[in-house]
Specification:
The structure holds two protein chains of two kinds.
Chain A: H1 2-17, H2 21-39, H3 62-65, H4 72-75, E1 88-92, H5 103-112, E2 116-120, H6 129-134, H7 137-154, E3 159-164, H8 167-176, E4 185-191, H9 205-212, E5 214-216, E6 230-232, H10 233-252, E7 254-255, E8 261-267, H11 276-284, E9 285-286, E10 294-298, H12 316-332
Helix pairs in contact in A: 7-8, 8-10, 9-10, 10-11
Chain B: H1 2-15, E1 27-38, E2 43-53, E3 61-69, E4 82-93, E5 100-114, E6 126-139, E7 147-156, E8 172-181
Antiparallel strand pairs in B: 1-2, 1-8, 2-3, 3-4, 4-5, 5-6, 6-7, 7-8
The chains are: A alpha/beta, B mainly beta.
Chain lengths: 333, 182
């Protein structure tokens, strides 16, 4: 931070030194105004409606109160040897979302009756604005690692990862950084992964964030209470850091441990995760035997094709896409 | 990166009052190397050219081109997407008889990305570029004033979201060019 200030001061003095006196006076006035504006930065809370917004202190993700309904590790503390043979899919949701994002997949799993799901709530998510503001991307990631380790310790032999949106780079980093022992991990499913965000101005968040304080998102009616409505710039900064880290890791090349498969499902027209995210994963991530990972481009214009619940408009094609992805995932489990 | 810019500006600050040779040539053509870095994305490296005429605003207006690719930047020995940009530019130079010359520049061109697999053919692969750039050029007092450094920062008015535009084009960038007067 001090280096930043020194750099800006010298840059400013340099620019001013080559200007005329009149311009200098104008610029000193401008600088004073900028300093005053930055000093009066508004750190106040956004206009949260506690009755409907997840950002408030009244509504939390249900998995906090009833973990046994969401996490296999909490649902069955003494699994039988038969239970341990049944695959478990650990589902990681996206930025600002909650376990709700994977609820349709949980319902699908119940109809299949051949695998369990563990819907993990990311760290700092599903609570309130202050928690979201304070969390780092490593803290978002930790509950995924914890759930994997708990299931592994309980003795489950076939664990799968499924990530949506920001959940995907978190999963990639877990593997790349050896944060788990992957001996019981079988396959990773990535749905609309974010490696390159569609909104390119996100890369400027460190510069403009303090002035914005937070970004308000337009919620669809069924999304109230399941997504954070107000995104503090600190959280967006963390997301930016995460995507930068993963992009560079993919550029350097990542090889999955042997016997772990990976499938990417990517919407072709995604206003949140730029479709070149799939290109970067295809180029940068290889299976243990050196072959390419599977990438399936979906003819869709929605972000997270597997989540339709809560959306205002759902087309027949959206339903078809969801069914296709669920079936494809189910066939691989 | 900031440290180097800091050092560069410091040196230029000390030398800003020195005069370059008054340019009496009918036209000047310079060719050089350019490195461009998008904030939050790739390095694109390549070549840059620049021509000015005595008759056209006494060498204050420059016409140029840039060709840069990630293949020579972030893509060197890595899995980065091959992104190539070709631009033509018009630039207004100030204090043309001094060594240190502030500039304003407008670039227009196109960008292309190669994804390396037919399954990505439906994604945007080309986009138009329109950017505004500002910075300082410094005529180095060596080799008969034939070398010129140009440090600039720019803003792309068109940046891609991957649906209607190319996802490799980011809004803000910094660039450093080293020209050699031919």
């Amino acid at each position: 931070m001090h280096i930043n200030k020194a750099f800006h001061s010298v840059l400013y003095m340099f620019v001013v030194s080559i200007m005329s006196l009149k311009t200098k006076i104008f610029n000193y006035v401008l600088l004073t105004a900028i300093i005053m504006a930055s000093c009066s930065k508004d750190d106040a809370l956004p206009p949260i409606n506690n009755a409907i917004d997840l950002d408030g202190t009244l509504i939390n993700d249900s998995s906090l109160a009833f973990p046994e309904k969401f996490l296999q590790s909490a649902a069955n503390l003494n699994p039988s040897s038969l239970d341990l043979e049944i695959p478990v899919v650990i589902c990681a949701h996206g930025f600002s979302a909650t376990t709700f994002e994977w609820s349709e997949f949980r319902d699908f799993a119940k109809t299949q009756k051949k695998f369990f799901t563990s819907q993990v709530l990311l760290g700092s998510h599903g609570r309130d604005y202050a928690d979201f503001k304070a969390g780092t991307w490593q803290q978002w990631q930790q509950p995924i690692i914890d759930e994997y380790n708990k299931l592994r310790t309980l003795g489950y032999k076939k664990i799968y990862f499924a990530g949506s949106s920001t959940g995907c780079p978190l999963l990639i980093d877990i593997i790349k950084s050896n944060k788990i022992k992957p001996d019981v991990l079988k396959h990773i499913f990535l749905v609309d992964p974010v490696v390159v965000p569609s909104n390119k101005t996100m890369t400027l968040i460190s510069a403009v964030g303090p002035a914005l304080n937070y970004v308000e998102t337009t919620m669809e009616k069924g999304e109230d209470g399941f997504w954070y409505k107000y995104r503090p710039y600190q959280a967006i900064e963390q997301l930016n850091m995460l995507t930068q880290v993963i992009r560079k890791e993919l550029e350097s090349g990542i090889t999955l441990p042997s016997n772990i498969g990976l499938t990417v499902y990517k919407s072709k027209k995604d206003g949140t995760a730029d479709p070149i995210s799939a290109v970067l994963i295809k180029k940068g991530l290889k299976l243990g035997n050196g072959s390419d990972v599977e990438v399936i481009m979906i003819d869709s214009d929605i972000h997270v094709v597997t989540r339709l619940r809560g959306r205002n408009v759902i087309s027949d094609k959206d339903i078809e896409n969801q069914k296709f992805v669920f079936k494809n995932m189910g066939d691989k489990i | 990166m900031k440290k180097y810019i800091f050092l560069f500006l410091g040196i230029l600050g000390l030398m800003q009052f020195t005069n370059a040779q008054i340019d009496t040539a009918k036209q000047n053509f310079s060719l050089g190397l350019r490195t461009k870095k998008y904030v939050g994305f790739y390095y694109l490296n390549g070549i840059s050219g620049d021509i000015s005429f005595k008759k056209v605003m006494d060498h204050k207006l420059h016409f140029g081109f840039n060709i840069a690719s990630s293949l020579l930047g972030s893509g060197l020995g890595s899995n980065a997407v091959t992104a190539t940009e070709v631009e033509v530019s018009v630039a207004r130079y100030y204090r043309v008889h001094k060594r240190l010359q502030p500039i304003l520049r407008l670039n227009i061109g196109f960008a292309n990305a190669q994804y390396g697999d037919a399954m990505f053919d439906d994604l945007p692969q080309n986009d138009m570029l329109l950017s505004f750039e500002t910075g300082v050029a410094y005529s180095l007092p060596y080799m008969q004033n034939k070398m010129k450094l140009l440090l600039s920062g720019g803003y792309n008015f068109i940046s891609g979201n991957g649906i209607t535009g190319l996802g490799t084009v980011y809004p803000v960038y910094g660039a450093l060019s080293l020209f050699w007067k031919m």
